[in-house]
Amino acid sequence: MSWRLQLDGGLAADFESNLSGLGTELGTAAYNMSEVLALPIFKQENVEDGFQCILNAATSPATKVNEETLTYLNQGKSYELRLKKLGDISQYEGKLLKSVVRVLFNDKRLQYAESEQLASWRSNRPGERLLRIDVPLSHNLIDSNSNTNNLNSVEFLWDPHQIVSCFIQVNCISTEFTPKKHGGEKGVVFRVHVDTHVHDKEHEKPIHSASCQIKVFKPKGADRKHKTDRDKMERISDSEKEKYHPSYECTVLTEQNLQLSLTENNGKVQLPPDSSPVPLHLRNNSPIFQHDDTFSSFDESFNNHSIGSDAGDSAGGASNFVGTPSAGTSIQETQEWLKQNRFGAYTKLFENFAGSDLLRLAKQDLIQIMGPADGIRLNNALQKRHVRPRLTLYVCQEHEQVYHALYLDMQTLGELKAKLANLYSIPPEQISTILRQGPTGIRVLVSDEMVENVKEESLFSLQAIKGEVMNSYTIIMT
């Protein structure tokens, strides 16, 4: 019996020591998100009021085990933030959760001067936000909103019965808040902080808070930093490697003390309202947010009627609007303009938008909402940007001193004939021939190929000669 006890004790000790090495090689292989979520560390179904909060970005292999993990991000790149409610969710039946995501300073010294630091950043980057939600990539967001006063805060509603996938973009870099503000310095550490509440119109009950440390680099800078850290770890001995965290393909946010989080961070940054328009972040089939910090408009839409049910009423009585939307263009006229300009697929998305609301949206906001192709096209249409002609000619009629501009989009003989006919106020079919005066005074018949090879902004004098056939003309360009 004593021999058996000794054997069991030895096995237990060996088993415990062997377990300490598990996971050290996870950073060397690629894992997709589903594989990561399947790991035992994330299976907490029995945790009451528990949450999974995961940022899909790799952790650094160069942080010591007694330090919090550090995650590198690229400026402006979209990273998935995944939230899941664990355990019993019966108490949230018929309720929604609201999560507020903020990027804060990790350093206490910078926290005290946070308002001044962000105000300085705003003055250097007017019209931009420090933190954005990439709406088109996100999934199961019931709605999202960007705090109009706080550049570093976004919030969204979600159903606790589903896993929500919110893609966020951090648009500042760590060295923008260092004394010399350039890449040669060690950048400051930020903290991605996520607070979740039970959404209620009267009172929002906080239920969870989590955060992680990040550093933000210029585009592709995070990838280079990861490579530098990996090279550094390869040069040290195995015994030294045991002092460092392994690198994982995603970052599990550390749960925070809920009361401490609320007292330290709630409403800390209150910048004065910006005079520039604040972009709205929208989602298809979602109600439109007004410029406030609440979800009151969502509550009214959600409780009173189905979302988007009045889209037909908005556009039903629209008049035939001609022109480009202005600050005074009504909602109905805006809807009609969208249809006339091949944006009919987006009338429901912009169903509550007047002309002033459309004009407030910047080019990047339209691209984010509609995608690159339609976003750029709508921006050009709103800015009255016409398609640039392929060829511009300046022509002067005989006995005139003033030149007229002819803009050719197709650079064909037929198009040139139509432009000249319009200049002479005659039908195009009355111009039988167009000749161009060449070297030594010869006259060359103008063809499609010749029009294609005319130099941009060439000058021509025109002479119209009436032909033998009634009402026909030959145009000579010299």
Protein model, in words:
- The protein has 478 residues and is of the alpha+beta class.
- It contains 15 helices and 18 strands.
- The strands form three sheets. Strands 2, 4, 6, 7, 9, 10 and 12 form a seven-stranded mixed β-sheet that branches. Strands 14-13-17-18-15-16 form a six-stranded mixed β-sheet, covered by helices on one side.
- A hairpin with a 5-residue loop joins strand 15 and strand 16 (443-445).
- Helix 12 crosses helix 13.
- The chain is elongated and about 100 Å long.
- The termini are far apart.
Topology of helices and strands:
Blueprint lengths: L1 H18 L13 H5 L13 E5 L14 E5 L3 E8 L10 E10 L2 H5 L1 H11 L6 E3 L7 E6 L6 E6 L5 E7 L19 E10 L5 E13 L3 H15 L2 H4 L9 E2 L1 E2 L2 H8 L30 H9 L6 H6 L14 H10 L14 H6 L2 H8 L1 H11 L8 E7 L6 E5 L4 H12 L6 E7 L5 E3 L2 H5 L5 E9 L6 E5 L1
Parallel strand pairs: 2-10, 13-17, 15-18
Antiparallel strand pairs: 1-3, 1-11, 3-8, 4-7, 4-9, 5-8, 6-7, 9-10, 10-12, 13-14, 15-16, 17-18
Notable traits:
478 residues, alpha+beta, seven-stranded mixed β-sheet, six-stranded mixed β-sheet, 15 helices, 18 strands, elongated, disordered N terminus
Percent of residues in β-strands: 15-25%
The count of DSSP E runs of length 2 or more, i.e. the number of strands, is 18
Shape verdict: elongated
Helix share bin: 25-40%
Through-space gap between termini: 117 Å
Mean pLDDT: 77
Biggest β-sheet strands, sense, barrel: 7 strands, mixed
Rg, Å, rounded:
32 Å
SSE-based structural type: alpha+beta
Low-confidence region ranges: 1-7, 11-31, 39-48, 262-318
| Alpha plus pi helix count | 15
